[in-house]
Write a structure and sequence with these properties.
alpha/beta; UDP N-Acetylglucosamine Acyltransferase, domain 1; 4 helices
Length: 185
């Protein structure tokens, strides 16, 4: 494994224009294209593509195309999870999604961060921080989850919210930035 990929997986600053990372991204491109083109294919065929694309995928996971990711292999999805149209999961760090999660259309899970220093940003430096979504979470349409965020089980995040900080279990959070507005029964 090359230095850039090791740094990326360790959550350190790395340069993404690396041949090894490009090959991983090409693998993802081919598999996402096949998955997105086969939206009307038999569920078993779609499941086979997901099993090859993702790090792990539980039983009865449904992802409506189009679906996009950086690598795929760093995404883990628990059983019974539903992901609606237009999901973008940028997995330069692990993305872990629990069981029975509901993800609305056009949701973005974004693990990469870019440098604040202008020169290093021009040079292309970035790093990733993992995202964890607990069991039975519902992310409304258009939710954006930022790098390093954990969302506790049974939490609901309202449509269009931007989640910049961890959310505890069993709450309703809304807004930009997302804030907890109440505890759920």
């Amino acid at each position: 494994m090359g230095d850039n990929k090791q740094r990326m997986l360790a959550g350190d600053w790395y340069l993404p224009d690396d041949p090894e990372l490009a090959a991983d991204s090409e693998r993802r491109f081919v598999l996402c294209a096949a998955y997105n083109a086969n939206g009307g294919a038999a569920p078993a065929d779609r499941a086979t593509i997901l099993a090859e694309l993702l790090g792990s995928v539980g039983a009865d996971v449904r992802i409506r195309p189009p679906f996009q990711c950086d690598f795929g292999r760093y995404i883990r999805i628990g059983e019974g999870t539903f992901i609606n149209f237009g999901a973008v999961f940028l997995d330069t760090a692990p993305i872990t999604i629990g069981a029975h999660v509901q993800i609305g259309p056009n949701v973005q899970l974004l693990t990469p961060s870019h440098e604040m220093d202008a020169q290093r940003r021009m040079e292309g430096w970035e790093k990733g921080e993992p995202i964890t979504i607990g069991d039975n979470v519902w992310l409304g349409g258009g939710v954006i989850v930022c790098p390093g965020v954990t969302i506790g089980e049974n939490t609901v995040v309202g449509a269009g919210a931007v989640v910049t900080k961890d959310l505890p279990a069993g709450v309703l959070a809304v807004g930009n930035p997302a804030r907890v507005v109440r505890t759920l029964p």
